[in-house]
């Protein structure tokens, strides 16, 4: 694991690692992992720790299960504390990798060089999922909404569900005279950053604030911790609306169809993949840093532009050769066919497009032992 930079960060890192290790055991996945260990030919062993994105949580559970059966002597630990917390943990030397729904910013890249060595850290796309705009309106399964209307709802400018701005896009739908309760994330969240980026780019006049992982201060409504927190709040609050990773949305909630060009597009993994196919690499990054710039204003047929690309952030190098082997083996599993299939089954995610998956594999293979 990278060395922490000070006594203060060492104490913080030690606490984080202890918290992650507390849930560990020889076979944390139970009998299946124990039986696999008895018959396994894998020689890989050790502890690999990560922290970060709660959106990745369901996929990570599937990856931990699948990887644990393939390599039963590896203890893979992940704490879904939120994207910002995950990046901070990696930059403090507390974990081996971070899960993040937003790529590293310029100041974080500089910090990463202090922890990971001169090559810094690598943003590797691992999980692609649409972000749902989900609501609790009994009897209504879907609504057509453009970006400007969604922005007005979350700003508190639209106070009732039968407001003309909503009704005009949903002729024939019996909208209730019910207060709108927007629910946002309380934590530093990559989901929030992706959501506010979509609003800012698709409806800049309605949402002038720059994208941020922290919800704008001063806006009304309620807030809750993590994807599960906002969904729980909406589920028990009639008239509430939130944004969350699609993996945590079930049939008890309705979802918005987004206006893309001249068509309203429902949420789907296929729509997310189409949107990601329009993305370009963020310029002026290291050759193996695959930070993606999404086109939130695409008019590509079937694209669902409110999409989240979640990254595994690894150091470009680690001092311990065993850690390098663990990181590379796990990373290649996640972006490979088996890992992506496990994520799709568990979390309704979209597969990484072929060319992007090849770039991700090459980036992971480039991770080395630092001098």
In short:
This protein is an alpha/beta fold. It contains 13 helices and 15 strands. The model is unreliable at 1-25 (pLDDT under 50).
Summarize the topology.
Layout: H1 7-21, H2 31-39, E1 46-52, H3 57-70, E2 74-79, H4 83-91, E3 97-100, H5 106-116, E4 121-135, E5 142-145, H6 147-155, H7 164-167, E6 181-185, H8 190-202, E7 222-224, H9 226-235, E8 240-245, E9 254-260, E10 263-265, H10 269-276, E11 280-281, E12 292-293, E13 307-315, E14 317-318, H11 321-335, H12 337-347, H13 354-365, E15 368-369
Parallel strand pairs: 1-2, 1-3, 5-9, 6-7, 6-8, 14-15
Antiparallel strand pairs: 3-13, 4-8, 4-9, 4-13, 9-10, 11-12
Helix pairs in contact: 2-3, 3-12, 11-12, 11-13
Class by helix and strand content? Answer: alpha/beta
Which descriptor suits the 3D outline? globular
SSE pattern: HHEHEHEHEEHHEHEHEEEHEEEEHHHE
- Sketch the major β-sheet: 11 strands, mixed
The total beta strand count reads 15
Number of helices: 13
| Helix percent band | 25-40%
Strand content: 15-25%
**Cα radius of gyration in angstroms:** 21 Å
Distance between the termini: 13 Å
Point out poorly predicted stretches: 1-25
Mean pLDDT: 90
């Amino acid at each position: 694991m990278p060395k922490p930079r000070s006594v203060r960060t060492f104490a913080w890192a030690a606490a984080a690692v202890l918290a992650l290790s507390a849930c560990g055991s020889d076979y944390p996945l139970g009998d299946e992992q124990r039986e696999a260990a008895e018959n396994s030919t894998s020689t890989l062993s050790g502890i690999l720790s990560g922290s970060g994105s709660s959106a990745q949580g369901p996929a990570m559970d599937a990856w931990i299960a699948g990887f644990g059966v393939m390599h039963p002597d590896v203890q893979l630990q992940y704490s879904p504390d939120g994207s910002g917390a995950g990046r901070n943990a990696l930059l403090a030397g507390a974990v081996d990798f971070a899960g993040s729904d937003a790529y590293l910013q310029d100041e974080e890249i500089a910090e990463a060089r202090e922890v990971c060595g001169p090559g810094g850290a690598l943003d590797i796309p691992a999980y692609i999922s649409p972000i749902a705009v989900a609501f609790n309106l009994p009897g209504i399964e879907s609504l057509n909404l453009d970006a400007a209307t969604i922005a007005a709802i979350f700003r508190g400018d639209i106070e009732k569900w039968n407001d003309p701005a909503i009704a005009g896009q949903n002729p024939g739908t019996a909208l209730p005279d019910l207060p709108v309760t927007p629910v946002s994330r309380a934590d530093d969240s990559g989901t929030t950053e992706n959501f506010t980026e979509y609003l800012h780019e698709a409806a800049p006049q309605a949402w002038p604030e720059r994208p941020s992982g922290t919800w704008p201060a001063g806006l009304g409504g309620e807030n809750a911790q993590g994807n599960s927190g906002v969904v729980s709040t909406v589920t028990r609050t009639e008239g509430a609306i939130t944004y969350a990773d699609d993996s945590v949305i079930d049939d008890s909630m309705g979802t918005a169809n987004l206006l893309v060009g001249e068509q309203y597009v429902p949420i789907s993994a296929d729509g997310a993949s189409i949107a990601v196919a329009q993305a370009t690499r963020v310029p002026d990054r290291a050759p193996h840093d695959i930070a993606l710039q999404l086109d939130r204003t695409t008019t590509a047929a079937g694209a669902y532009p409110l999409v989240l690309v979640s990254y595994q952030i690894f150091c470009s190098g680690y001092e311990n050769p065993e850690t390098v082997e663990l990181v590379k083996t796990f990373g290649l599993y996640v972006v490979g066919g088996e890992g992506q299939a496990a994520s799709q089954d568990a979390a309704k995610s979209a597969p990484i497009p072929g060319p992007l998956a090849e770039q991700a594999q090459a980036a992971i293979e480039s991770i080395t032992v630092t001098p």
